[in-house]
Specification:
Length: 362
């Protein structure tokens, strides 16, 4: 038996005057899930989170929490404790006083609340800073204090809006693993708003990709990465090469796509679509092979000139351009590229298996 969702959005719409910020969202969030809402600026992520928090009322539709409609229920009168993580710490309180503040407001006794606050500081590995002023903390330490302060009340749901955006790149990566581990250990449901693909994909169990107030795709990071549902998602993730064209059949009757860069055989699985229909084939940049000479035993290949390269740690991204002017990117480890004399301007042949292709809607 599947568990009833902790949160559900049913046909939720939010309009500000005549402007629709969120268009008909249907979404279930399970108890204990780490869900990321991701998309570019203005796509409606924060508005969605604010509706869940009770800071905005939906214009249409129903939001349920543990089965109960909460559209017009202020957060303090709900049965399910939910906390909006705020990075704004009280500057006039020290670290442990910041963490215990919410417990004090709830009337918990001094000894108990101090013990609870210290447990959370310990858990966040910042117990040694308990007596420090907030101004004496680094960005990462403040972030941990803010998390401890949100979690000390043991909410069922934690809402986070770009919590790592002010941190430098190295700290961001460290905090991602802190957050993920914490979420796993506590089983608290995290709803996490970010415009960063790396944050969403490294931490979340499921990612909701939004664009202009609409949900474009909901899925596990792996499913979205491997099978983007639309051209928008493939473009947004930036990890696939996209060949646009028209669906057709080759001389042997196999489903193909006719593009400016050539005709390519499509994956055997999935609906082949209607001949003549406009569509796009996506191929992950890690799934493309590079050959010095035209390969004989492959089903899909295209000649392309190397136009650039970029090294990112263990892998390299090589940029090519086909005769029709389309850019094609290939990402490989240095070992995989070892046998090739990679020179800018040189002609190569790129290939991929039809099963590595994926058809998306325009
Ligand atoms: N109170 C409001 N009144 C009018 N328009 C609003 C209001 N709040 C948000 N909007 C508009 O709704 C749209 C969605 O805003 P929202 O803050 O949800 O986007 P977002 O995806 O979180 O973006 P960002 O990453 O920039 O925070 C934006 O175009 C925004 O200008």
């Amino acid at each position: 038996m599947t568990q009833a969702p902790l949160v559900s959005f049913e046909g939720v719409v939010k309009r500000f005057g005549s402007y629709t910020a969120v268009q008909k969202i249907d979404l279930d969030i399970s108890q204990g899930e780490f869900l990321a809402l991701m998309g570019s600026s203005g796509c409606g992520k924060t508005t969605t989170l604010r509706m869940l928090a009770g800071l905005e009322a939906p214009t249409e539709g129903v939001i349920r929490l543990s089965g109960q409609p909460i559209n017009d229920l202020p957060s303090w009168s709900r049965d399910t404790p939910m906390v909006w993580q705020s990075l704004a710490l009280f500057p006039f309180l020290n670290v442990v006083e910041n963490v215990e503040f919410a417990l004090k407001m709830r009337g918990m006794g001094k000894a108990d609340r101090r013990r609870r606050a210290e447990q959370w500081l310990d858990r966040m590995q910042i117990a040694e800073f308990a007596g420090r002023n907030i101004s004496q903390l680094s960005g990462g330490q403040r972030q941990r204090v803010a998390l401890a302060r949100s979690l000390v009340v043991e909410p069922k749901i934690l809402l986070l809006d770009e919590p790592l955006s002010a941190l430098d790149a190295a700290l961001k990566v460290r905090m991602q693993s802190v957050l993920k581990n914490l979420q796993r250990e506590t089983g608290i449901t995290f709803v996490y708003v970010t415009h960063s693909q790396s944050e969403a994909f490294s931490m979340a169990d499921r990612v909701v990709i939004m664009s202009r107030g609409k949900v474009e795709q909901i899925g596990t990071p792996r499913d979205i990465y491997r099978a983007p549902r639309s051209r928008f998602v493939a473009d947004f993730l930036g990890s696939s090469n996209i060949f646009s064209g028209e669906l057709a059949r080759d001389a042997q009757g196999r489903p193909t796509i006719v593009t400016d860069s050539g005709d390519f055989i499509l994956p055997g699985v999935g609906a082949p679509g209607i001949e003549g229909q406009k569509s796009s084939l996506t191929v992950l940049d890690t799934r493309m092979q590079v050959h010095a000479d035209a390969p004989q035993d492959v089903q899909n290949s295209v000649a392309a000139r190397m136009v650039g390269e970029e090294f990112t740690g263990a892998t390299a991204t090589i940029y090519f351009e086909t005769q029709s002017g389309q850019e094609v990117r290939v990402q490989k480890t240095h070992e995989e590229l070892a046998g090739l004399d990679l020179q800018i301007g040189q002609l190569f042949h790129l290939s991929w298996s039809p099963s590595d292709g994926h058809l998306v809607n325009e």
